[in-house]
Write a structure and sequence with these properties.
Length: 423
């Protein structure tokens, strides 16, 4: 055994026992490397990153990482038959759980049609071992190794659990008081939400649902204009994206009036840890903050974005990023035990500018996409967004038990259309 899993890592392992909790990354390639080069690159990455050769052992009430007895990273080679074939591969990857007791927590599928043809590489990782920052860096390393076989990357040590880098005020009796204060705010928020949500449509909980994916983007000109509008109005792009999502969902799914909607805001904790953990180290070092926002009937995109911006900054000043992480296991156990409510209405993860180049030697990227598994107790609509190749890439995930493809596509188009307005 190497070390005990942290609070959030343990939460993700617990969720994995009920539902797959995976990250799927798809890179669309031109000038594709041969399959043997991809296999060699994955082997080099497994030697470099301890978590890629990890399995999870349970001893009494705790989980531990063990780095022995794990097989090589599996890479399945499939003949490429169409330009959209990879989407079905992604959906299958998101729906297939990992056996964390045997490992490794990563697998790949390579759709290859020859060196001169296009190809798609789909990597799937269990979410406990990767977040947005480390996923982008992992893809950068993988493509660098594929482009230059003589590239040598040094082996890394196993990074500590996230909470080991928290400041002193979140530990000991002071930490207990801070957690109690956070819990009190959450209870008060729940009481307000239940009062305001009377008579409001509740997203149904289905017996099962399969993850389906869509992908869209804004062109360079529209993306640049959106960034300028956010700067002019002094709101983050994340707040603008979330505002567009909530406005469309309210109008199309939840009805008229002043309604409380819940959304998740995701924040990287890496820069705030002591010492900071760089993206070269795999791990899931982020926080999920749930916001309840009263979306009023007369709100436009930018007014709602301003409200969300203020909510997010206020939560950050209170330390809710770290506090929410410390309570995730208890909250998730309650949700999985009750199975009577959905966690939120929507979730958006905006990860900024992706740290992946557009070309590696002869390999050119025609697209970069990513999704995270959802499940029947999760939000009704989720999306991953990033800036790549100067474009806003919007990757939608929905459950086919919640909506059909036409509905999901219509909602996404309306959100992107709204982001291109200046009113």
């Amino acid at each position: 055994m190497q070390r005990a899993l942290g609070v959030f890592e343990t939460t993700q392992v617990v969720v994995n026992a009920h539902f797959p909790f995976n990250v799927a990354i798809a890179v669309l390639l031109l000038g594709a490397p041969p399959p043997e080069r991809v296999s060699q690159a994955l082997a080099a990455l497994q030697r470099r990153h301890p978590l890629l050769r990890a399995r999870v052992e349970r001893h009494r009430h705790r989980f531990y990482y063990a780095l022995q007895g794990v097989s090589e990273i599996p890479l399945r080679l499939l003949p490429r038959t169409s330009a959209e074939q990879w989407r079905a591969v992604v959906e299958q990857a998101l729906a297939t759980p990992f056996d964390l007791a045997t490992g490794p927590p990563i697998r790949g599928v390579y759709l290859y049609g020859g060196a001169e043809a296009a190809a798609e590489l789909v990597l799937c990782l269990q979410h406990a071992v990767v977040d947005a920052a480390s996923a982008a860096n992992l893809m950068h390393e993988l493509l660098s190794l594929c482009a230059a076989a003589d590239t040598v990357l040094p082996e890394l040590s196993l990074a500590p659990a996230t909470e080991s880098g928290f400041p002193p005020e979140l530990r000991g009796w002071r930490g207990v008081l801070r957690r109690l204060g956070f819990l009190g705010r959450q209870i008060a928020d729940e009481i307000r939400y239940q009062r305001r949500a009377r008579g409001m449509r509740r997203a149904p909980i289905h017996a099962s649902g399969r993850c389906r994916v869509l992908h869209r983007d804004l062109d360079r000109e529209a993306t640049s204009a959106l960034v300028r509008r956010c700067r002019r109005r002094r709101v983050t792009l994340n707040s603008a994206l979330c505002a567009a999502m909530l406005l469309v969902l309210k109008r199309e799914l939840y009805g008229r009036g002043n309604l409380p909607l819940r959304s998740f805001v995701f924040a990287s904790l890496r820069p705030y840890l002591h010492p900071p953990i760089g993206p070269e180290h795999l791990g899931s070092h982020f926080a999920m903050m749930r916001m309840t926002t009263l979306v009023r009937e007369d709100m436009d995109l930018w007014r709602l974005a301003g409200v969300l911006n203020r909510q997010t900054h206020a939560a950050a000043r209170r330390g809710d990023k770290a506090l929410s992480l410390l309570l995730t296991r208890s909250v998730m156990r309650m949700i999985l035990g009750l199975r009577r409510m959905r966690m939120a209405h929507a979730a958006l993860s905006y990860t900024g500018v992706a740290g992946v180049a557009e070309q590696y030697g002869e390999i050119r990227l025609a697209g970069l996409h990513a999704w995270v598994s959802n499940f029947t107790l999760g939000p009704e609509y989720t999306a991953q967004a990033r800036i790549y190749a100067d474009r806003l890439v919007w990757d939608t995930l929905y459950l086919d038990s919640d909506m059909d493809a036409a509905t999901a596509a219509r909602l996404t188009e309306q959100m992107l259309d709204l982001l291109q307005t200046d009113v």
